[in-house]
Amino acid sequence: MPSKIVEVKNLNVIFGQHQVLDDLSFDVNKGEVLAIIGPNGAGKTVLFHALIGLSRPTSGVINWKSNVKIGYVPQRFDIEVDLPLTTREFFYLKGGDVTDKKIKEFLDLVGIDHEALNKGISQLSVGQRQRVLVAWAVMNEPEILLFDEPTADIDIRGQQSIYHLLHKIQDQIGFAVILISHDLSVVYKYADQVLCLNSKRVCMGPPREVLSAEQLLELYGGEQTFYKHLEKSFHEDHHA
């Protein structure tokens, strides 16, 4: 029987007069990958913030497994270029049983050379910083990782590398994943379930069962340019 990591029931988030999330319900089981897709302003990042306690739901319930360990990789790592913080110091900010040996182990896991330890965190490339964030997030071997489209500022090859890396680490550690992605090829390749979100739940299920050109059109509505990109990905995937 599946073991639930998190269960969301009738979640509502309202900012002023704007209903950002509307009666949203779903759950994620141990080892499962849930992808969240939807147009800009659909409430995807707000949902993540509610899950990790950065924003408070107006109503509804978020039930986490008791004593669950959560990892979180944000959309981007914005830092000042003159920030006097090395990569090693950044990892030690995590606290707990962090050691140089453990840091190097997880740098190896994400494919970062140990020389990065002595470099300023601001000296790393965008792709390297995102890999460092992944290493930071999984260092305590979480039971679930929240992945908030952290490849938005990375080129296509770098994006594929990050997602392949995530899949490899998940196989080793065995955590569940909730990821936000605008790339249907990522959804089809890595997700067990997909949640189509536009304030409320538009559809949910295995990607190949619930995603269709008609469903995507309903989800993305007026975002025609964006929808065409998704429709192209949809047809390429189904004719591969």
Number of helices: 9
Could you tell me the mean pLDDT? 85
Shape, principal axes of CA atoms: globular
**Which topology of the largest domain does CATH recognise?**
Rossmann fold
Number of domains: 2
Which regions are unreliable across 5 or more consecutive residues at pLDDT < 50?
224-229
**Largest beta-sheet details:** 6 strands, mixed
Number of strands: 9
CATH class of the largest domain: Alpha Beta
Output the radius of gyration.
18 Å
Strand content range = 25-35%
User: What order do the SSEs take from the amino end to the carboxyl end, as H and E?
Assistant: EEEHEEHHHEHEHEEHHH
CA(first)-CA(last) distance: 34 Å
| Helix fraction by DSSP (H/I, runs of at least 4) | 25-40%
Largest sheet, order of strands side by side?
A: 5-6-7-3-8-9
Helix/strand-derived class? alpha/beta
What is the correct CATH architecture of the largest domain? 3-Layer(aba) Sandwich
